[in-house]
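Lecture 7, part 2: worked example. A protein chain together with pyridoxal-5'-phosphate.
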Amino acid sequence: MEKKASTALIHHPYRPPEGFDSPQPGIFKASSVFFPNVAAMRSREWKDKTAYTYGLHGTPSSYTLEERLCTLEGGLQCVLAPSGLAALALVSLSMLRSGDEVLLPDNVYEPNKSLVEAELKHWGITHQFYDPMDLADLESKLSDKTRLVWLEAAGSVTLEFPDLPALVRLCTAKGICTALDNTWGAGIAFNPFDLLPGVVPALGVDISTQALTKYPSGGGDVLMGSVITRDPALHMRIKLTHMRLGLNVGSNDVELVLRALPSIYLRYRAHDTSTRAVAAWCQAQPEFVQVLHPALPSSPGHAHWRSLCTDAAACLFSVVLDARFSQAQVYAFVDALRLFRLAYSWAGPISLVVPYDLARSRGRWPAQVARGAVVRFAVGLEDPQDLQADIAQALALLRT
Ligand SMILES: *Cc1c(COP(=O)(O)O)cnc(C)c1O
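Predicted complex, written out as C-alpha coordinates:
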Protein backbone atom coordinates (compact mmCIF):
# COMPACT_ATOMS: atom_id res chain seq x y z
CA MET A 1 0.00 0.00 0.00
CA GLU A 2 1.38 3.43 -1.01
CA LYS A 3 1.77 5.56 2.11
CA LYS A 4 2.35 9.29 2.56
CA ALA A 5 5.69 10.08 4.23
CA SER A 6 3.76 11.24 7.33
CA THR A 7 2.29 7.73 7.67
CA ALA A 8 5.45 5.91 6.56
CA LEU A 9 7.43 7.68 9.31
CA ILE A 10 5.17 6.10 11.92
CA HIS A 11 4.71 2.66 10.28
CA HIS A 12 8.39 2.27 9.56
CA PRO A 13 10.32 -0.99 9.14
CA TYR A 14 11.96 -2.06 12.39
CA ARG A 15 12.60 -5.56 13.71
CA PRO A 16 12.33 -5.66 17.50
CA PRO A 17 14.17 -8.39 19.43
CA GLU A 18 12.32 -11.71 19.42
CA GLY A 19 9.25 -11.63 21.68
CA PHE A 20 9.21 -7.85 22.20
CA ASP A 21 7.30 -5.19 20.29
CA SER A 22 6.52 -1.60 21.34
CA PRO A 23 6.01 1.83 19.74
CA GLN A 24 9.62 3.06 20.00
CA PRO A 25 12.66 1.26 18.55
CA GLY A 26 15.31 0.02 20.98
CA ILE A 27 18.36 2.22 21.50
CA PHE A 28 21.85 0.73 21.18
CA LYS A 29 25.06 2.30 22.43
CA ALA A 30 28.61 1.23 21.67
CA SER A 31 32.14 2.21 21.04
CA SER A 32 33.32 -1.44 20.98
CA VAL A 33 31.39 -3.97 18.93
CA PHE A 34 32.31 -7.65 19.45
CA PHE A 35 33.53 -9.96 16.69
CA PRO A 36 33.31 -13.74 17.18
CA ASN A 37 36.69 -14.36 15.50
CA VAL A 38 39.44 -12.72 13.44
CA ALA A 39 37.91 -13.86 10.16
CA ALA A 40 34.74 -11.92 11.01
CA MET A 41 36.81 -8.91 12.08
CA ARG A 42 38.62 -8.91 8.73
CA SER A 43 35.56 -9.45 6.56
CA ARG A 44 32.85 -7.33 8.16
CA GLU A 45 31.86 -4.37 5.98
CA TRP A 46 30.35 -1.28 7.67
CA LYS A 47 30.14 0.94 4.58
CA ASP A 48 27.05 -0.76 3.14
CA LYS A 49 25.44 -1.20 6.60
CA THR A 50 25.40 -5.00 6.29
CA ALA A 51 27.41 -5.33 9.52
CA TYR A 52 28.68 -3.49 12.59
CA THR A 53 32.37 -2.87 13.31
CA TYR A 54 32.71 0.10 15.68
CA GLY A 55 30.36 2.62 17.29
CA LEU A 56 31.76 5.44 15.16
CA HIS A 57 30.79 3.53 12.00
CA GLY A 58 27.14 3.11 13.03
CA THR A 59 24.81 1.33 15.43
CA PRO A 60 21.31 -0.10 14.93
CA SER A 61 20.04 3.21 16.41
CA SER A 62 21.92 5.50 14.02
CA TYR A 63 20.95 3.30 11.05
CA THR A 64 17.26 3.48 12.05
CA LEU A 65 17.35 7.28 12.30
CA GLU A 66 19.19 7.55 8.97
CA GLU A 67 16.54 5.43 7.26
CA ARG A 68 13.69 7.49 8.72
CA LEU A 69 15.29 10.76 7.64
CA CYS A 70 15.60 9.36 4.10
CA THR A 71 11.86 8.60 4.25
CA LEU A 72 11.20 12.18 5.37
CA GLU A 73 13.27 13.85 2.64
CA GLY A 74 12.82 11.41 -0.23
CA GLY A 75 16.53 10.47 -0.20
CA LEU A 76 18.31 7.11 -0.34
CA GLN A 77 21.40 7.54 1.85
CA CYS A 78 22.05 9.56 5.01
CA VAL A 79 24.98 10.53 7.21
CA LEU A 80 24.44 12.04 10.69
CA ALA A 81 26.55 14.91 12.04
CA PRO A 82 26.87 16.37 15.56
CA SER A 83 25.09 19.63 14.58
CA GLY A 84 23.49 21.31 11.59
CA LEU A 85 26.63 23.37 11.12
CA ALA A 86 28.79 20.21 11.23
CA ALA A 87 26.60 18.81 8.42
CA LEU A 88 27.26 21.93 6.29
CA ALA A 89 31.00 21.75 7.03
CA LEU A 90 31.08 18.02 6.23
CA VAL A 91 29.58 18.65 2.78
CA SER A 92 32.06 21.40 1.95
CA LEU A 93 35.04 19.39 3.26
CA SER A 94 33.93 16.31 1.29
CA MET A 95 33.34 18.10 -2.00
CA LEU A 96 36.03 20.81 -2.18
CA ARG A 97 39.74 20.62 -2.91
CA SER A 98 42.47 23.24 -3.16
CA GLY A 99 41.88 25.37 -6.30
CA ASP A 100 38.09 24.82 -6.26
CA GLU A 101 35.47 27.53 -5.81
CA VAL A 102 32.22 27.35 -3.85
CA LEU A 103 29.25 29.69 -4.39
CA LEU A 104 26.84 30.69 -1.63
CA PRO A 105 23.65 32.78 -1.66
CA ASP A 106 24.17 36.18 -0.06
CA ASN A 107 21.38 35.40 2.44
CA VAL A 108 23.06 32.13 3.47
CA TYR A 109 22.99 30.88 7.09
CA GLU A 110 25.65 33.13 8.62
CA PRO A 111 28.02 30.45 10.08
CA ASN A 112 28.28 28.80 6.63
CA LYS A 113 29.64 32.15 5.45
CA SER A 114 32.29 32.27 8.15
CA LEU A 115 33.27 28.66 7.33
CA VAL A 116 34.28 29.67 3.79
CA GLU A 117 35.74 33.04 4.85
CA ALA A 118 37.77 31.90 7.86
CA GLU A 119 38.55 28.20 7.24
CA LEU A 120 38.24 27.03 3.62
CA LYS A 121 40.16 30.09 2.41
CA HIS A 122 43.28 28.77 4.16
CA TRP A 123 43.00 25.51 2.22
CA GLY A 124 43.13 27.34 -1.13
CA ILE A 125 39.36 27.13 -1.68
CA THR A 126 37.83 30.36 -2.99
CA HIS A 127 34.20 31.51 -2.71
CA GLN A 128 31.77 34.04 -4.13
CA PHE A 129 28.32 35.12 -3.00
CA TYR A 130 25.46 35.27 -5.49
CA ASP A 131 22.03 36.91 -5.38
CA PRO A 132 19.61 33.95 -5.10
CA MET A 133 16.78 36.12 -6.50
CA ASP A 134 18.72 36.80 -9.70
CA LEU A 135 19.35 33.77 -11.93
CA ALA A 136 21.65 35.77 -14.23
CA ASP A 137 23.85 36.70 -11.26
CA LEU A 138 24.43 33.03 -10.39
CA GLU A 139 25.00 32.18 -14.06
CA SER A 140 27.65 34.90 -14.41
CA LYS A 141 29.55 33.53 -11.41
CA LEU A 142 29.67 29.86 -12.44
CA SER A 143 33.10 28.99 -13.85
CA ASP A 144 35.41 26.03 -14.54
CA LYS A 145 36.51 26.30 -10.89
CA THR A 146 32.99 26.05 -9.42
CA ARG A 147 32.63 22.67 -7.70
CA LEU A 148 29.76 23.31 -5.29
CA VAL A 149 26.78 25.66 -5.14
CA TRP A 150 24.97 26.11 -1.83
CA LEU A 151 21.23 26.82 -1.89
CA GLU A 152 18.76 27.90 0.78
CA ALA A 153 14.97 28.19 0.54
CA ALA A 154 13.84 30.38 2.20
CA GLY A 155 16.97 32.48 2.84
CA SER A 156 18.17 33.06 6.39
CA VAL A 157 16.63 35.98 8.33
CA THR A 158 15.20 37.85 5.30
CA LEU A 159 13.33 34.74 4.05
CA GLU A 160 13.41 35.60 0.33
CA PHE A 161 12.15 32.54 -1.56
CA PRO A 162 14.27 31.81 -4.66
CA ASP A 163 13.25 30.08 -7.89
CA LEU A 164 14.85 26.88 -6.58
CA PRO A 165 14.10 24.65 -9.62
CA ALA A 166 15.64 27.25 -11.97
CA LEU A 167 18.79 27.63 -9.82
CA VAL A 168 19.20 23.84 -9.64
CA ARG A 169 18.59 23.39 -13.38
CA LEU A 170 21.28 25.96 -14.17
CA CYS A 171 23.92 24.17 -12.04
CA THR A 172 22.88 20.66 -13.07
CA ALA A 173 23.14 21.55 -16.79
CA LYS A 174 26.80 22.47 -16.17
CA GLY A 175 27.45 19.34 -14.09
CA ILE A 176 28.00 21.35 -10.90
CA CYS A 177 27.07 19.77 -7.56
CA THR A 178 24.22 21.44 -5.67
CA ALA A 179 23.77 21.31 -1.89
CA LEU A 180 20.60 22.60 -0.25
CA ASP A 181 20.38 23.63 3.40
CA ASN A 182 16.87 22.20 3.79
CA THR A 183 16.32 23.06 7.46
CA TRP A 184 13.38 25.39 6.67
CA GLY A 185 11.58 22.92 4.36
CA ALA A 186 12.46 19.95 6.60
CA GLY A 187 11.40 17.51 3.85
CA ILE A 188 7.79 18.63 4.42
CA ALA A 189 7.39 21.87 2.43
CA PHE A 190 8.78 20.28 -0.77
CA ASN A 191 10.79 17.26 -1.91
CA PRO A 192 14.39 18.44 -2.45
CA PHE A 193 15.10 15.53 -4.80
CA ASP A 194 11.98 16.02 -6.93
CA LEU A 195 11.34 19.74 -7.24
CA LEU A 196 8.97 19.45 -10.23
CA PRO A 197 6.81 16.39 -9.49
CA GLY A 198 5.76 14.65 -12.71
CA VAL A 199 8.74 15.90 -14.73
CA VAL A 200 11.02 13.04 -15.90
CA PRO A 201 13.92 12.75 -15.24
CA ALA A 202 13.42 14.24 -11.77
CA LEU A 203 14.98 17.63 -11.13
CA GLY A 204 16.51 17.78 -7.67
CA VAL A 205 19.49 18.83 -5.62
CA ASP A 206 22.45 16.46 -5.23
CA ILE A 207 22.75 16.92 -1.47
CA SER A 208 20.22 17.99 1.16
CA THR A 209 21.33 18.92 4.66
CA GLN A 210 19.18 19.65 7.69
CA ALA A 211 19.74 20.97 11.16
CA LEU A 212 17.85 18.19 12.97
CA THR A 213 18.20 20.62 15.87
CA LYS A 214 15.10 22.36 14.49
CA TYR A 215 11.94 20.49 13.38
CA PRO A 216 13.09 16.84 13.62
CA SER A 217 14.11 17.28 17.28
CA GLY A 218 11.40 19.84 18.02
CA GLY A 219 12.39 20.31 21.64
CA GLY A 220 15.10 22.97 21.72
CA ASP A 221 17.30 20.46 23.55
CA VAL A 222 19.24 18.52 20.88
CA LEU A 223 21.94 19.46 18.36
CA MET A 224 22.28 17.23 15.28
CA GLY A 225 22.55 17.42 11.51
CA SER A 226 21.97 15.18 8.50
CA VAL A 227 23.36 14.92 4.97
CA ILE A 228 21.07 13.11 2.54
CA THR A 229 21.76 12.02 -1.04
CA ARG A 230 20.36 9.77 -3.77
CA ASP A 231 23.63 8.89 -5.48
CA PRO A 232 25.66 6.00 -3.96
CA ALA A 233 29.05 7.34 -5.14
CA LEU A 234 28.34 10.82 -3.80
CA HIS A 235 27.15 9.35 -0.49
CA MET A 236 30.30 7.23 -0.19
CA ARG A 237 32.52 10.27 -0.74
CA ILE A 238 30.72 12.11 2.10
CA LYS A 239 30.61 9.02 4.33
CA LEU A 240 34.38 8.44 4.04
CA THR A 241 35.15 12.07 4.92
CA HIS A 242 32.69 11.74 7.82
CA MET A 243 34.49 8.61 9.04
CA ARG A 244 37.99 10.16 8.69
CA LEU A 245 36.91 13.27 10.62
CA GLY A 246 35.57 11.04 13.42
CA LEU A 247 32.14 12.68 13.52
CA ASN A 248 29.69 10.95 15.85
CA VAL A 249 26.23 11.44 17.32
CA GLY A 250 25.30 10.02 20.73
CA SER A 251 22.59 7.34 20.87
CA ASN A 252 20.72 9.25 23.61
CA ASP A 253 20.32 12.16 21.19
CA VAL A 254 19.38 9.78 18.36
CA GLU A 255 16.66 8.46 20.66
CA LEU A 256 15.26 11.98 21.21
CA VAL A 257 15.00 12.63 17.46
CA LEU A 258 13.45 9.19 16.81
CA ARG A 259 10.86 9.97 19.49
CA ALA A 260 10.01 13.35 17.97
CA LEU A 261 9.79 12.31 14.29
CA PRO A 262 6.30 10.73 14.40
CA SER A 263 4.81 14.14 15.35
CA ILE A 264 6.86 16.27 12.92
CA TYR A 265 4.05 16.77 10.37
CA LEU A 266 1.59 17.84 13.08
CA ARG A 267 4.11 20.16 14.70
CA TYR A 268 5.14 21.71 11.36
CA ARG A 269 1.50 22.47 10.54
CA ALA A 270 0.73 23.83 14.00
CA HIS A 271 3.78 26.15 13.89
CA ASP A 272 2.84 27.18 10.34
CA THR A 273 -0.80 28.03 11.16
CA SER A 274 0.15 30.15 14.19
CA THR A 275 2.97 31.87 12.32
CA ARG A 276 0.64 33.00 9.53
CA ALA A 277 -1.81 34.42 12.06
CA VAL A 278 0.86 36.34 13.97
CA ALA A 279 2.66 37.53 10.79
CA ALA A 280 -0.61 38.77 9.26
CA TRP A 281 -1.41 40.67 12.47
CA CYS A 282 2.08 42.23 12.41
CA GLN A 283 1.44 43.47 8.87
CA ALA A 284 -1.29 45.72 10.25
CA GLN A 285 1.01 47.40 12.82
CA PRO A 286 2.33 50.79 11.62
CA GLU A 287 5.72 50.39 13.40
CA PHE A 288 6.56 47.51 11.02
CA VAL A 289 7.22 48.75 7.48
CA GLN A 290 7.60 45.21 6.10
CA VAL A 291 6.81 41.66 7.23
CA LEU A 292 8.95 38.96 5.62
CA HIS A 293 7.23 35.56 5.43
CA PRO A 294 7.11 33.52 2.19
CA ALA A 295 3.34 32.91 2.39
CA LEU A 296 2.59 36.67 2.47
CA PRO A 297 2.01 38.03 -1.07
CA SER A 298 4.19 41.09 -0.27
CA SER A 299 7.20 38.96 0.74
CA PRO A 300 10.10 38.58 -1.76
CA GLY A 301 9.72 35.43 -3.86
CA HIS A 302 6.14 34.70 -2.73
CA ALA A 303 5.24 33.38 -6.23
CA HIS A 304 8.21 30.96 -6.12
CA TRP A 305 7.10 29.75 -2.70
CA ARG A 306 3.54 29.20 -3.94
CA SER A 307 4.63 27.18 -6.96
CA LEU A 308 7.14 24.96 -5.09
CA CYS A 309 5.69 24.39 -1.62
CA THR A 310 2.69 22.29 -0.63
CA ASP A 311 1.21 25.27 1.23
CA ALA A 312 3.79 24.83 4.00
CA ALA A 313 5.74 27.81 5.33
CA ALA A 314 7.52 26.89 8.59
CA CYS A 315 7.61 29.00 11.74
CA LEU A 316 9.83 31.95 10.87
CA PHE A 317 8.99 35.53 9.98
CA SER A 318 10.89 38.78 10.24
CA VAL A 319 9.73 42.36 10.61
CA VAL A 320 11.50 45.51 9.42
CA LEU A 321 10.97 48.32 11.91
CA ASP A 322 10.43 51.87 10.72
CA ALA A 323 13.85 53.53 10.23
CA ARG A 324 12.83 56.34 12.62
CA PHE A 325 13.40 54.02 15.61
CA SER A 326 16.87 54.13 17.17
CA GLN A 327 18.82 50.99 17.92
CA ALA A 328 18.15 51.55 21.63
CA GLN A 329 14.37 51.64 20.95
CA VAL A 330 14.57 48.44 18.88
CA TYR A 331 16.49 46.65 21.63
CA ALA A 332 14.02 47.93 24.25
CA PHE A 333 11.15 46.53 22.13
CA VAL A 334 12.85 43.10 21.94
CA ASP A 335 13.73 43.15 25.65
CA ALA A 336 10.10 43.93 26.52
CA LEU A 337 8.81 40.69 24.93
CA ARG A 338 7.82 38.12 27.55
CA LEU A 339 6.62 34.98 25.71
CA PHE A 340 9.12 35.39 22.85
CA ARG A 341 12.42 34.52 24.52
CA LEU A 342 15.67 36.05 23.31
CA ALA A 343 17.56 33.06 21.87
CA TYR A 344 18.96 31.50 18.68
CA SER A 345 17.41 28.48 16.93
CA TRP A 346 13.74 27.69 16.25
CA ALA A 347 11.05 24.98 15.83
CA GLY A 348 10.81 24.16 19.53
CA PRO A 349 7.74 24.71 21.74
CA ILE A 350 8.88 28.15 22.97
CA SER A 351 8.70 31.21 20.70
CA LEU A 352 12.03 32.94 20.15
CA VAL A 353 13.22 36.32 18.88
CA VAL A 354 16.55 37.71 17.61
CA PRO A 355 17.35 41.24 16.38
CA TYR A 356 19.73 41.25 13.37
CA ASP A 357 22.15 43.84 12.05
CA LEU A 358 21.95 43.28 8.29
CA ALA A 359 24.13 46.29 7.49
CA ARG A 360 26.97 44.49 9.28
CA SER A 361 26.29 40.88 8.22
CA ARG A 362 25.46 41.34 4.51
CA GLY A 363 27.70 42.72 1.79
CA ARG A 364 24.78 44.65 0.30
CA TRP A 365 21.32 45.48 1.62
CA PRO A 366 18.87 42.98 0.05
CA ALA A 367 17.11 44.73 -2.88
CA GLN A 368 13.59 43.65 -1.89
CA VAL A 369 13.90 44.40 1.80
CA ALA A 370 12.96 47.81 3.28
CA ARG A 371 15.62 49.73 5.21
CA GLY A 372 15.35 49.47 8.98
CA ALA A 373 16.14 47.20 11.90
CA VAL A 374 15.27 43.56 11.20
CA VAL A 375 13.85 41.42 14.01
CA ARG A 376 13.26 37.71 13.39
CA PHE A 377 10.52 35.83 15.21
CA ALA A 378 10.32 32.03 15.50
CA VAL A 379 6.80 31.07 16.50
CA GLY A 380 6.50 28.20 18.99
CA LEU A 381 3.48 26.18 20.03
CA GLU A 382 1.84 28.75 22.33
CA ASP A 383 -1.61 30.16 21.54
CA PRO A 384 -1.17 32.67 18.68
CA GLN A 385 -3.44 35.26 20.36
CA ASP A 386 -1.17 35.26 23.42
CA LEU A 387 1.81 35.78 21.11
CA GLN A 388 0.09 38.73 19.41
CA ALA A 389 -0.70 40.24 22.78
CA ASP A 390 2.95 39.88 23.74
CA ILE A 391 4.10 41.78 20.64
CA ALA A 392 1.35 44.38 21.21
CA GLN A 393 2.48 45.11 24.77
CA ALA A 394 6.10 45.48 23.61
CA LEU A 395 5.02 47.75 20.74
CA ALA A 396 3.23 49.98 23.27
CA LEU A 397 6.69 50.91 24.49
CA LEU A 398 7.52 52.39 21.06
CA ARG A 399 4.29 54.43 21.12
CA THR A 400 5.01 56.34 24.31
C1 LIG B 1 20.14 26.24 12.87
C2 LIG B 1 20.53 26.17 11.44
C3 LIG B 1 21.72 25.53 11.07
C4 LIG B 1 22.72 24.98 12.06
O1 LIG B 1 22.22 24.06 12.94
P1 LIG B 1 22.95 23.80 14.36
O2 LIG B 1 22.48 22.45 14.75
O3 LIG B 1 22.51 24.91 15.26
O4 LIG B 1 24.42 23.83 14.11
C5 LIG B 1 22.01 25.46 9.71
N1 LIG B 1 21.20 26.01 8.80
C6 LIG B 1 20.05 26.62 9.13
C7 LIG B 1 19.21 27.20 8.05
C8 LIG B 1 19.69 26.73 10.46
O5 LIG B 1 18.56 27.37 10.79
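Residues 264-283 form the longest helix (20 residues). Residues 83-85, 109, 156, 181, 183, 211, 213-214, 223, 225, 345 surround pyridoxal-5'-phosphate (CB under 6 Å). Keep this in mind for problem set question 3.
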